[in-house]
Amino acid sequence: MQKNPRAMFIITLLLIVSLAGCIHRRPHHGPRHPGPSGHAPAPPPASARHPDLYISEFKLTPAVPVKGQPVHVRIGVYNQGTAPAGPFTVKWWAGENYPNPACAWNIDRMNARGGRILTCTYAGYPSRYSRINTRVKADTGNTVNESAEGNNVRKKRIRVVRP
Predict the structure, then answer these.
(1) Same domain, 31 and 84
(2) Helix/strand/coil for 25
(3) Distance of CA 114 to the CA centre of its chain
(4) Residue 160: beta bridge partners?
(5) Is the pLDDT of residue 130 over 80?
(6) Mind listing the pLDDT tens digit for each residue in 69-79?
(7) Do residue 34 and residue 68 come from a single domain?
(8) Where are the beta strands (DSSP E) in 80-142?
(9) Model confidence at 10, in pLDDT bands (50, 70, 90)?
(10) Does residue 67 fall inside a structural domain?
């Protein structure tokens, strides 16, 4: 019987690698990415888990509002963190420098990896603007201890035209 040099090389290489401890076999029903011990890494402790809210969607209809005509606002808020969030408030300002929000929503709770679509109808811009920034913010009272606080605001530059 003739020996196959390529097969012998592969068997030898597998034996060396196996003896060096570089191959970890995962248990039949175990994790896909085992750690050095062959077991799944432990989830982070509850004290290390935090919510992380951000604005996932921000849409005005019509996209170019008309002075004095209603504007439909659609806001998506998502918790990309590892813990639930709540309670918190989401607010939308028709103009970023307007003193009061045009719409506000109170959210009791949002699960980790969960989100909500929020809508309202704004009565209409009081005048035309060649450009104005509109703004939405999640957790306006900073009541949620998040892993990243800097991603709660989203702005959109729009213009408002004459009727």
Answers:
(1) no
(2) coil
(3) 9
(4) 129
(5) yes
(6) 999 999 999 99
(7) no
(8) 88-93, 103-107, 114-122, 129-138
(9) low
(10) yes
Alpha helix segments (H runs only) across the chain: 5-20
pTM over 0.90: no
Domain shared by 54 and 77, yes or no:
yes
Question: By CB neighbour count within 10 A (0-12 exposed, 13-18 middle, 19+ buried), where does 139 fall?
Answer: buried
Our count of domains for the chain comes to 2
- What is the extent of the structural domain holding 60? 50-160
Is residue 36 domain-shared with residue 62, that is, in the same domain?
Answer: no
Tell me: do 30 and 92 sit in the same domain.
Answer: no
131: left (phi over 0), alpha (psi -120 to 50) or beta: beta
- Residue 111 and residue 12: Cα distance in Å, rounded? 51
- Which is nearest to 91 in space by CA: 37, 144, 55, 126? 55
Place of tokens 């191959």: 23
Residue in the structure block whose two tokens are 């306006």: 140
Say whether both 9 and 79 belong to one domain.
no
One domain for residues 106 and 130: yes
